[in-house]
Amino acid sequence: MATEFLNSVLKQLNWSFSEFISMMQEIQNLSKRPERVIIDARQLKICATCFDFVISLLRVVEMICTICLPVFTDSSREGTENLLERLSQLLSQILLRVTSPTGCFTHVISLEVPDLDSIDQFPVLSAVVGVIVALLAEDLKDPEKTVMSPAIKSLLYEPAFQLNTFKYVLGKTGDQENFSLANYPQAVSAEELDTVNKVISLLTHQQTRMSEVSEVDEEELCPICCAMPLAVTFMPCHHRSCKSCITHHLMDCNNCFFCKTAINSVVSNDGKLLFDAAASAHKVTDLHPI
Questions:
Q1: Is residue 204 part of a domain?
Q2: What residue ranges in the chain does DSSP mark as E strands?
Q3: Neighbours of 209 (CB within 10 A)
């Protein structure tokens, strides 16, 4: 039940943000036309509403992470690995879009369109930071531990995650016009700013440790994400990918990425059967040994 609910929340968050960014890009394109263009007021209201949905759903996720973190981090629960990877991907994409100085978000809010006055960096960035702080709450209690937690691993192994986009929230990217949570003292306390600094230090430390580990041979990297090592083999075609990519793929399609052959089963590098099409009933939440 919890997994189904969280799947629904993440799907709605993904849809809301995708629709919001799509409309922001359209507004950006219209604003760059040489002739004067009047944007439909209804479109502006829908855009603002999608933004509100994104903020609300992020706060829901933050609340869940705060009161019941194991639904994302407890590997013994079915579906947690997939949920955590999807959440990390969403958070990374939001950070990338909102902090980009040349992106549509920055461009449109600089236009100061009256019907879009509720759209700003602070509400969305503070919500994303809230989720990440909640995800890493246990790690902050012991920042020097050598074993990387599932939450940290999921963030740092996410191809779209860039530590600079997180440092951006404290004005640590060197831009001339810095955004910073510190500019909102009535909404963000000194203690909360200190916590964000600790998260940055923690992620920086763990990222440094990752870089010190010997690199994986390029031929052993997943050809889909180009970030994770090859970990599974599809049967009967024997093509390979990382566990994360095939887990996401099997939620929508049972055909091989490469040759489009129907996947009958997925086997891990150590020979464990992770997916059996005959027994799956077309429902995939995560890949665990069968």
A1: yes
A2: 232-235, 240-241, 265-268, 273-276
A3: 12
Q: Which of 179, 212, 245 is the last residue of a domain?
A: 212
DSSP conformation letters of 39-78: PPHHHHHHHHHHHHHHHHHHHHHHHHHHH-THHHH-TTST
94 plus 181 within the same structural domain: yes
Alpha carbon of 1 to those of 4, 6, 7, 77: distances in Å?
A: 5, 9, 10, 12
| Number of helical (H) and strand (E) elements in the chain, helices listed first | 12, 4
> Are 170 and 244 found together in one domain?
no
Please count the structural domains in the chain: 2
Sheet holding 265-268, edge to edge: 240-241, 232-235, 265-268, 273-276
- Distance of alpha carbon 24 from alpha carbon 49, whole angstroms: 12
CA–CA gap between residue 49 and residue 118 (Å, rounded): 10
Q: Which amino acid is at 267?
A: V
For the stretch 23-46, pLDDT in tens is 999 999 998 888 887 788 999 999
Residue closest to 53 by CA, chosen among 27, 83, 5, 21? 21
pLDDT in tens, 146-190: 788 999 999 998 989 999 999 999 987 655 567 999 999 999 999
| CA-derived radius of gyration, the chain | 21
As beta bridge partners, residue 273 has 267
CA–CA distance, 285 with 250 (Å, rounded to integer): 9
Using a pLDDT cut of 90, give the percent of the chain over it.
61
Q: How far apart are CA 151 and CA 137, in angstroms?
A: 10
